[in-house]
Structure formats: structure tokens, C-alpha cells
């Protein structure tokens, strides 16, 4: 019976160096691709709070499209993320209700929009995304400037929004909610609702 011995062969030093160099190159290429995407195209956010229920719940993971608003402006119904000018520079998620130059009136738990196309106003029908809602807090009558948007949370009874802090300006808007990535069973790509 022969006495066999096994020895582990040490890799040549050149292959170790080559492996490290290839790994470094992959990391650099990934950073070159991922960092600009993260900074200018899409950005992840977590929902915190109940202000957008029943459409968004606490701890959901959202991907925000940032580049879209470099090519165009928000439209009514878009779900946006914006930076609020409070002490913490917080990010908020809300729905665009009023557009620049419009008049927004809230009375009798209804929202009315007045603009050039509708000088006599129209009642905003939100039934596509809010089966039942009450927009309270007395009467509100706001005329928006050319760079202002009126935003509301979908959970009108529990939302800090334009009814409290007033309209937001275009330069505070980070992007539009594009998709919900978590939880997986609630994955969804969001479309702007139709108000016909």
C-alpha cells in the first residue's frame, strides 16, 4: 500500500495580483455606473407614517424617478417626493392637487380647481385612487403662483400637507414615485391618474 500525501498548491503570486486588480476594476466600473444613476436618475425612499394610506403604508420601499422632472413638470395626480424646508430638511411624499397659476378651493369636503381651461371651476374626482375620502379643515381658497404646487396626502385626516404649510415650490421637488419595490407582494409601477 503506497503512502500518498496531499499538498495544497499555493497560487502563484501573479494570479493573486491579477484577481485583486480585476476586482478593483469591477468596483470602479460599478461606482461609475451606479453613483450617477443614484444621484440623477432614480433614488430609493422608505415611507414613514400614515399620511398616504390607503395607497402607501409605513415601511414600504419606493423608487423615485428623478430625471423625469428634468424633462417636464409635475402634473395633477403625480405622487411626488419633495424636500420640506423644516429644521430637519425632511422628505415628504404627497399627491399633486393644484398646479402653477391655478386656484384651489376646498369646501364642504370637496376640492375645486379653477384655471384657464375651467374658469368656472371643476370638482376634483379622486375616486380612482381614493374610494372614500373626506378633505376637511374648514374652507381653503388658495391662488398658486407660477412656480407653486398644492399637495395633499391621500389620508386627509392624518396628513401634514399644503393645508398646513402652504404650497410648495418647484425647486423643492425631488422626483415622482415610480414603483413600489417592497414588500414584493405589493410591487407596483405607478401611473398618473386620469381626472376625466
Structure description:
It is a single chain. The protein has helices spanning 13-41, 68-71, 162-165, and strands at residues 42-46, 61-65, 79-83, 91-98, 103-107, 110-114, 122-123, 140-143, 148-152, 168-169, 173-182, 188-189. It has 196 residues and is α+β, with helices and mostly antiparallel strands. It has one domain: Ribbon (Umud Fragment, subunit A), CATH 2.10.109.10. A hairpin with a 7-residue loop joins strand 6 and strand 7. The termini are far apart.
Poorly predicted runs: none
Overall helicity: 10-25%
Please report the number of helical segments: 3
What is the fourth-level CATH superfamily?
Answer: Umud Fragment, subunit A
Tell the overall outline: elongated
Any idea how many domains?
Answer: 1
Quote the beta fraction.
25-35%
Would you report the number of β strands?
12
CATH class value: Mainly Beta
Structural class by sheet pairing and helices: alpha+beta
The largest pleated sheet is described as: 8 strands, antiparallel
The helix/strand series, from N terminus to C terminus, equals HEEHEEEEEEEHEEE
Q: Kindly report the oligomeric state of this protein.
A: single chain
In the CATH classification, which architecture applies?
Ribbon
Radius of gyration from the alpha-carbon trace, in angstroms: 25 Å
What does the average pLDDT come to? 76
First-last Cα distance: 90 Å
CATH topology: Umud Fragment, subunit A
Amino acid at each position: 500500500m503506497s503512502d500518498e500525501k496531499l499538498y495544497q498548491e499555493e497560487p502563484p503570486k501573479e494570479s493573486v495580483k491579477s484577481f485583486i486588480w480585476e476586482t478593483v476594476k469591477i468596483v470602479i466600473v460599478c461606482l461609475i455606473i451606479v453613483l450617477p444613476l443614484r444621484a440623477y436618475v432614480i433614488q430609493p425612499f422608505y415611507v414613514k407614517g400614515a399620511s398616504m394610506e390607503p395607497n402607501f403604508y409605513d415601511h414600504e420601499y419606493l423608487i423615485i424617478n428623478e430625471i423625469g422632472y428634468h424633462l417636464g413638470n409635475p402634473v395633477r395626480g403625480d405622487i411626488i417626493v419633495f424636500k420640506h424646508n423644516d429644521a430637519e430638511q425632511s422628505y415628504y411624499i404627497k399627491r399633486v392637487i393644484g398646479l402653477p397659476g391655478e386656484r384651489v378651493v376646498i369646501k364642504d369636503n370637496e376640492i375645486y380647481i379653477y384655471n384657464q381651461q375651467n374658469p368656472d371651476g371643476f370638482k376634483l374626482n379622486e375616486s380612482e385612487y381614493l374610494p372614500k375620502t373626506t378633505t376637511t379643515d374648514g374652507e381653503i381658497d388658495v391662488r398658486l403662483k407660477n412656480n407653486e404646487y398644492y399637495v395633499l396626502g391621500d389620508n386627509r385626516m392624518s396628513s401634514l400637507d399644503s393645508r398646513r404649510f402652504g404650497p410648495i415650490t418647484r425647486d423643492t421637488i425631488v422626483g415622482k414615485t415610480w414603483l413600489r419595490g417592497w414588500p414584493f407582494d405589493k410591487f407596483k409601477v405607478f401611473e398618473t391618474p386620469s381626472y376625466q
